[in-house]
Amino acid sequence: MIVDHTGITLLLATFGVLVLLRVPITFCLAISAIVTGIYLNVPLEAIVKVMADGVMNFSLLAIPFFIIMGEIMNEGGISQRLVNLANLLVGRLPGGLAMVNVMDSMFFGGISGSAVADVSSLGSIVIPMMKKQGYDDEFAVGLTVCSACQGIIIPPSHNMIIYAFAVGSASQLAGGTLLVVSVGKLFLGGYLPGILMGITMLIISLVIAIRRKYPRGKGYTLKEGLFILLDGALAMFTALIVVGGVIIGIFTATEAAAFAVIYAFIVTFFIYRDAPLIRFVKILYSSLKTLAIVMSLIAAASAYGYLLSRLQVPRLTTEFLLSITDNYYLLLLLINFMLLALGCIMDMAPLILICTPILFPVLVLKMGMDPVHFGIMLLLNLSIGLCTPPVGSALFVGSAVGKIPIERASKGCIPFYISMLITLMLVTYIPAITLFLPNLLMPGK
């Protein structure tokens, strides 16, 4: 089969040049696909149809509901309640507020699924508190930024929906039958890796806190503790609705997300009542902006993926990687390094849509890796990119919230990069960490 090297170079080089020129990633994907399509004599109508088909997918309907749910909970005073709940559980340990920072991110990640939302909402509360108690600025910001990345793999996460969609597209583009990855299994697969990441950060935070003599947090009376537990549990129940409903089979992911929006609306505006009902208009506006970005990105990535497939890039990538080594474990290490490098220069959602069609045939179709395991490994890799320079979005938000330069924020992240890399290696080479819960609770699905 003849390989069009000029077409491949045109597709990749156009995209690379536009990225370096800081063109928005959606336009980078769309323009490079159109330019390459013109070179290949692909009708423009065909490219537009591929883009339209890319977003007309029922599984993507869950994404707007997840976005709205996260916006509602973020607006309704949930952040302070989760801080109080985490403080109740771990605040009395040495460096208690650092422990709280990790725990509240774990809780919030199970609600919003967004690292940036975590840093902006929880960071604005916890970082000033840590500074007031004598914590170093770099440590406070670095811990906040890195712990927020737990939210990417602790369900529910709309990035898991994007990955599930990308797997379907990748399996078809690779010339096989449509492969559907269970969203419920992805949700379950993210729990233990997310908790493991949290535990490694807790250990590192505890060691640093003891060495630097950071203070313990305050205690609570039994009455205060029960109130905090009940108040925080109402918010945490949102994640239980989504994940539990999907696992048991009561809901599809879309139906669970829609029901969770209703629950979040009632809890925020009629039980907590920290925000007036008029704020719901702002929530819808903010959600619409986010949704427009995500869906236009998916449409553009669909066209780009179509050109990748037409030019046989996934097949050529498979052959290239296997020519370097056919050892499964070395191949995993090589792909991890590649994903970590890509995460430093691009955001998460476009990388999911670009890398899945290229790497899925190598690891899943060729090497037999479980698609759920591959998905969690991919998301964990790319979540690290959210807190690494030069384009880590969570790092930039943390720097702004903590009012310190990017350089100092990056320095504070260094101990926690180590914990994230340890987690990544464990998840990569011990599939049971990811697959234990899916195989236990959803066998054969």
Question: Can you offer a commentary on this structure?
Answer:
The protein is an all-alpha fold and 445 residues long. It has one domain. Helices cover 78% and strands 0% of the residues. The protein has 20 helices and no strands. Helix 1 runs antiparallel to helix 2, helix 5 crosses helix 6 and helix 16 runs antiparallel to helix 17. The two termini are 37 Å apart. The model has no long low-confidence stretch (mean pLDDT 85).
List the helices and strands and how they pair.
Blueprint: H1 5-20, H2 25-39, H3 44-55, H4 62-75, H5 78-90, H6 96-112, H7 115-132, H8 137-148, H9 158-173, H10 183-212, H11 222-248, H12 253-272, H13 279-310, H14 313-324, H15 328-343, H16 348-366, H17 371-385, H18 393-402, H19 406-429, H20 431-441
Helix pairs in contact: 1-2, 2-13, 3-13, 4-12, 4-13, 5-6, 5-11, 6-7, 6-8, 6-10, 6-11, 7-8, 7-18, 8-18, 8-19, 9-13, 9-16, 9-17, 10-17, 10-19, 10-20, 11-12, 13-16, 14-16, 15-16, 15-17, 16-17, 17-19, 18-19, 19-20
Query: What Rg, in angstroms, do the CA atoms define?
Result: 22 Å
- The helix content is over 70%
Provide the domain count: 1
Structural class: mainly alpha
Q: What are the low-pLDDT stretches, counting only 5+ consecutive residues below 50?
A: none
Helix segment tally: 20
Strand content: under 5%
**What is the average per-residue confidence, as pLDDT, rounded to a whole number?**
85
Tell me the overall shape: globular
Question: What's the gist of this structure?
Answer:
With 445 residues, this protein is mainly alpha-helical. The chain has 20 helices and no strands.
